[in-house]
Every structure is written in structure tokens, then in C-alpha cells.
Specification:
alpha/beta; Rossmann fold; 6-stranded mixed sheet; globular; binds iron/sulfur cluster
């Protein structure tokens, strides 16, 4: 069976090096390059992809998720919503001595859930609970319906449409953006190739020294029927990657020269404090875009509000529940957000400031 090699290109250094490696080892007719466009990318990423296509003489297929159907279904759901159920807060029940009362099943056995801590599974007993308060209506109010239906139309931007459909932004715990905008698109592309009779090898630019989660990633593995993953860079360092590209006369994405330590969504929902400050100084238009998205997604949500960083109620940081402008303010502070950092605004936003020391 003929093999088809698929390289996912993101515009970052690792995927660029992976593409270069694949081009050196694989014949062109058995190689495909894809880019999953989230719609939350900096313009420089699109320009860099065009540069790569020209410099390497290869076509990079752009994949873009479309949520028109989901949005149409949600409109219908909201318009017809007439649920009468209420949603209650609950508290755990304790006995007279203050010990938790455990929930039991129909046979009188204590109920438990299997959870995981530090990679090790354990049984967590389930406490019996009781409803408190009068509860909240599950149904969309007429006011919320009118507000959401006025804005809930596909915009053609995958990231924004996804968030309007979900009524919220992704978060660290609910990182549905990666799955919906990247993973599903790449997998669908590869399944089409499998259906066309190919054995698919998915080249992934992943390094073990990137993070603890990736420290044990395997160089190659089977990921499905007639589908394998191949990760040629697992033992490389970031410097190896830059050197490899430089030896082949391929420029790094200019975003690396402007303070970005990673290339991808701008901003990513996992953006660090320093990165957020850099983005707000160098590309304030991206912050303005996110602010307009916060308004739109908020209008499309039942609560009437949505924040990009972080998703409401999922963290307990000093800037909990702040909108993007509040987060930008916080990014200019020191000591956990309690003191304004006068030096933060003095850093020259037009100077080269590569996090990898690419510019001397
Ligand atoms: S995790 Fe970050 S980079 Fe990945 S899709 Fe979500 S916002 Fe984009």
C-alpha cells in the first residue's frame, strides 16, 4: 500500500524544520503539507506560509473549520427553548461530628469515582449533597434569546464562530479550540487519504524538551488504522531547530524576532503574562480584536458576558474574571498583579527581542 506523508505546518520553527526534513527524505508526490487556520493567527503567520511555499516550492493546503451548521442548530435551539427545569447549587452533607456523609448506591455500597493524581489513579469517595437556594432557570430568558439571536450568525472566522457556538472562550481546562480547529481538521484530512487507499504517516514537529507533558513522547507510533505518527524532532533542542533551518537558508518566522517564544494563535488562551504584555505593546490591534470578540461571544452566551482570559470561574488568580483590557493592565504589573511595573512600559516595542536570542 502506498504511503502518504502529511506534515502539519503551523508557521512555527518546529513544523518548518519537520517540513524541511520530510522534503529531504520523501518524494514530492507522496508528501502533503497542511496548515489548520484557526482564524486567530497574526498576519505574519499567513505571510510566512506564503514565503515557505515560495522558498520551498511546495503547496501548503489551508484547512479551515466551518461551524455554520452548529450555529444554525444553536439558533433553532435558542429560539425554541421552553425548558422548565431549574438548576440548583448543592452543598455536601456532614454528620453531627462534622464528617462527610458518603453517597450510596441502590445496594447500600459507598459510591466512588476513579480520579488521577500525579499520573496515579485513585478512588475518590462521593459525598452526599443537598440542594440549596431556589435554583436558576435552565431556559434562556426572552431577553437573552433576543440578544443572542441578533449576533449569532457565522462570521467565517473559525475561532470566533466556534466560541459563539459554544457561548464561551476555550480555557486551560476546556481547551476545545485545539481539538475543533486543529486536530479534527487534520484527522479528517488524513482519513480522506486513508479512504483514498493510502497509508498515512503524520509528521509532527514535537520536541521532548518543550514541556513535561511531552518529555516521554514517542518518536513513532500507530495512531489508527493505516495511520501512524512520526516525530523526527523529539530529541532536538530549539537551537538545533533554528540552526537546521538556517543551514538550509530558511528564515525563521519574523514573530520570533519580535519577542514571541511560540508562534500560533495570537493571543493563545494559554498566553503568559510576559507574552501578553509584548502583544499589547507591539500589536495592540490584536487586543482590540479580542475585545470585540469578547463582546460578540458575550452577546451570544446565555450569561451575556464572556472573557478570553481566563474563562470565568475556572481560575482563582489575581485577575480572575477580568476582560482582556484588565488582563493587559495586569500584564504590566509585578508581584502577582499588586504593583504597577514602571519599567514594563519602557521596553522598546520596535526593538528585536527574540526569546531565543536570534537577533544580536
Ligand atoms: S490552545 Fe492556543 S494555540 Fe492552540 S488552538 Fe487554542 S488558542 Fe490556539
Amino acid at each position: 500500500m502506498e504511503a502518504m506523508h502529511v506534515v502539519s505546518v503551523s508557521g512555527g520553527k518546529d513544523s518548518t524544520a519537520t517540513l524541511l526534513l520530510a522534503m529531504e527524505r520523501i518524494s514530492r508526490e507522496n508528501l502533503r503539507a497542511i496548515f489548520c487556520d484557526t482564524g486567530n493567527e497574526h498576519q505574519a503567520v499567513y505571510e510566512y506560509l506564503s514565503y515557505l511555499e515560495q522558498a520551498l516550492d511546495i503547496q501548503i493546503d489551508r484547512l479551515k473549520a466551518d461551524f455554520s451548521e452548529q450555529i444554525a442548530d444553536k439558533r433553532t435551539f435558542i429560539a425554541r427553548d421552553d425548558r422548565t427545569r431549574r438548576q440548583y447549587d448543592t452543598v455536601g452533607i456532614e454528620d453531627a461530628a462534622g464528617n462527610p456523609v458518603w453517597a450510596r448506591d441502590g445496594f447500600g455500597k459507598i459510591r466512588f469515582k476513579i480520579k488521577e493524581k500525579n499520573g496515579a489513579p485513585f478512588c475518590a469517595l462521593i459525598q452526599k449533597t443537598v440542594k440549596v437556594g431556589g435554583g436558576r432557570r435552565v431556559r434562556w430568558t426572552n431577553k437573552a434569546k433576543r440578544r443572542a439571536l441578533a449576533v449569532l450568525h457565522p462570521t467565517g472566522n473559525p475561532f470566533l464562530d466556534l466560541c459563539m457556538w459554544k457561548g464561551r472562550f476555550p480555557s486551560r481546562k476546556g481547551q476545545f479550540c485545539t481539538e475543533e480547529l486543529k486536530r479534527n481538521m487534520a484527522v479528517a484530512y488524513q482519513i480522506d487519504l486513508v479512504d483514498a487507499g493510502y497509508r498515512v504517516i503524520s509528521w509532527q514537529g514535537v520536541r521532548r524538551d518543550e514541556s513535561a507533558r511531552r518529555s516521554n513522547v514517542r518518536k513513532s507510533e500507530r495512531i489508527g488504522p493505516r495511520m501512524h505518527a512520526f516525530r523526527p524532532l523529539v530529541e532536538w533542542t530549539a537551537l538545533d531547530v533554528f540552526n537546521y533551518c538556517a543551514q538550509r537558508s530558511i528564515q525563521p518566522n519574523p514573530l520570533y524576532l519580535q519577542g514571541c517564544s511560540r508562534v500560533g494563535c495570537m493571543p493563545c488562551i494559554n498566553v503568559s503574562k510576559d507574552e501578553l504584555r509584548t502583544i499589547s505593546q507591539r500589536w495592540p490591534e490584536e487586543i482590540e480584536r479580542v475585545a470585540s470578540w469578547e463582546w460578540l461571544v458575550g452577546q451570544a452566551s446565555k450569561r451575556g458576558a464572556a472573557t478570553f482570559l481566563p474563562a470565568p470561574g475556572e481560575t482563582r488568580t489575581a485577575v480572575d474574571r477580568g476582560n482582556i483590557w484588565q488582563r493587559v493592565e495586569w500584564s504590566r504589573t509585578t508581584r502577582g498583579g499588586s504593583q504597577y511595573d514602571p519599567l514594563a512600559d519602557l521596553s522598546e516595542p520596535t526593538a528585536c527581542s527574540s526569546a531565543y536570542g536570534l537577533c544580536n
